[in-house]
Amino acid sequence: MKETTTRKKRETKKEQADRILRILAALDREYGTEYRCYLNHETPWQLLIAVIMSAQCTDARVNIVTADLFKKYNTLEKFARADLKELEQDIHSIGFYHMKAKNIIACCRDLVEKFGGKVPETIEELTSLAGVGRKTANVIRGNIYNEPSIVVDTHVKRISRKLGLTKEEDPEKIEYDLMRVLPKDHWILWNIHIITLGRTICIARRPKCVECFLRDECPGCEC
Q: What domains appear along the chain, each with residue ranges and CATH number?
């Protein structure tokens, strides 16, 4: 631990850049370079609704709920006209379902009335929708429009800090830090790879540092 701490303090920009390239290469070897989304969807608006629902809820739980939800509300217009209490009941097994149901209906109404039923592409238009912040907007931009974007969820925040790529706590500031140090062609992959790493090896409460293929590049390694 002493060696990694010393290395972190003395690391130059060139050394950090080289270390980041080694990290990205290791992630690519381990997880591949295919873009994938963990939320089941068939249309852009379904993904948007699923991401709104996923806040402080597991993707697995959201996928269970949307399996029936997207059959019942099989058009964007049906969501826009949904009864609030009924939709709350439909999604009650996920966290914060009162607010999420309200946001889903408001979001879908705006999609129908302001955007002609199309999920917008720009960060400004997306964040104008109810329940859509930068994280949700960047998920849409990356997965639907293949627009290079960095999604800062709990895994990305924790592990990016652990790897010494940011010292920030605020997700938006972390996003900008990562945009500065990561090559643009890996912005989307960073989220995909780091989520996988955080779920399987670098687990928040019990990191498996000894098993981690990034341990030699990680200043926060606990082994």
A: 44-145 (1.10.340.30), 150-217 (1.10.1670.10)
